[in-house]
Design a protein that fits this description.
With about 80 residues, the protein is an all-alpha fold. It has one domain. About 65% of the residues lie in helices and about 0% in strands. It is elongated, with a radius of gyration of 14 Å.
């Protein structure tokens, strides 16, 4: 993750659409979401430390988390099948 910084915000919807059954694409999407979650968390923490309003960032971070959970659940279902 070092050296790869991507600012996330409420305007960033990700735009990733994964075809059903494409495990490699799902894994790549999961990994991308994980990196974005990590960077977003760091940004929120820095914002809090600087006294910034971060509610919008937190809301977006939670939306990313839900997407990450959905992708992980889908990958888990694929493994079970």
């Amino acid at each position: 993750m070092k050296g790869r910084y991507r600012v996330i915000g409420p305007q960033d919807t990700g735009g990733d659409v994964t075809p059903p059954g494409d495990r490699g694409a799902l894994e790549a999407h999961r990994d991308s979401l994980y990196e974005r979650l990590e960077l977003g968390y760091e940004r929120i923490e820095r914002g809090l430390a600087n006294g910034e309003e971060v509610t919008t960032w937190e809301d977006f971070w939670v939306a990313l988390l839900r997407e990450y959970e959905r992708v992980c659940d889908e990958l888990q279902r694929d493994l079970a099948a």
